[in-house]
Write a structure and sequence with these properties.
Elements: E1 10-15, H1 21-29, E2 36-43, H2 50-57, E3 60-63, H3 68-71, H4 73-81, E4 86-89, H5 98-103, E5 108-112, H6 126-135, E6 140-147, E7 157-164, H7 171-194
Parallel strand pairs: 1-2, 1-4, 2-3, 4-5
Antiparallel strand pairs: 5-6, 6-7
Helix pairs in contact: 1-2, 1-7, 6-7
Bound molecules: glycinamide ribonucleotide (GAR).
Length: 195
């Protein structure tokens, strides 16, 4: 007799430092999901545009100071309060504290706007990444979705997708192509990993 795996609903927190277009896209994708819920956005910036998006989407968003992400205790307390089971980093620019990594083993994933292991590490985020890709004369870029470990952008890779980079492409053109891939694939990978 085959056994059916019963799937338990999960609460996922999104961590975002900036505009939050990925956060919005993910929340919209899972709006009617019985399985994956997104009750909370955590940011380290009070003036990040992600808070406006959260308001519009009727999702709770909070700001925690940078210092809270050094030890992670206060962050963990908030996550426990919301019964969070997993974390998605969508444009989150601080290092995830060790405490969170051990509290959520293989339950934290990040999206990086390039093809890791190239163009990753501290300080490599958003437009800095696209600028570096262009300066290196790359003919392709893309997205990498990976588990988060102790080092920036070094956790095991779950998924990558590529786009071309033409010699005439500006930094913004590359950003647009990469965003398109992010919007298409990030929610599907989240569904695959946590659903
Ligand atoms: C995204 O392109 C994401 O891949 C990148 O920041 C952007 C956030 O955009 N993340 C990193 O660079 C992390 N190293 P968004 O705020 O509009 O979702």
């Amino acid at each position: 007799m085959s056994k059916k795996r019963i799937k338990m609903p999960k609460n996922i927190a999104i961590f975002a430092s900036g505009s939050g277009s990925n956060a919005e896209n993910i929340i919209q994708y899972f709006q009617n999901s019985d399985l994956l819920h997104f009750p909370l956005i955590v940011s380290n910036r009070a003036n990040a545009y992600v808070h406006e998006r959260a308001k519009k989407l009727n999702i709770k968003s909070i700001t925690l100071p940078k210092s809270d992400f050094e030890t992670g205790e206060a962050v963990l307390n908030v996550l426990r309060k919301y019964n969070i089971n997993a974390i998605v980093l969508a444009g989150f620019l601080l290092k995830v504290p060790e405490l969170l990594i051990s509290a959520f083993p293989d339950k934290i994933i990040n999206i990086h706007p390039a093809l890791l292991p190239k163009f990753g590490g501290k300080g490599m985020y958003g437009s800095y990444v696209h600028r570096a890709v262009k300066a290196a004369g790359e003919t392709e870029s893309g997205i990498t979705i990976h588990y988060v470990n102790r080092n920036y952008d070094e956790g095991n890779i779950i998924f990558q997708a590529k786009c071309t980079v033409e010699p005439t492409d500006t930094e913004d053109d590359i950003a647009q192509k990469v965003h398109k891939l992010e919007y298409e694939y990030f929610p599907k990978v989240i569904e695959e990993v946590f659903g």
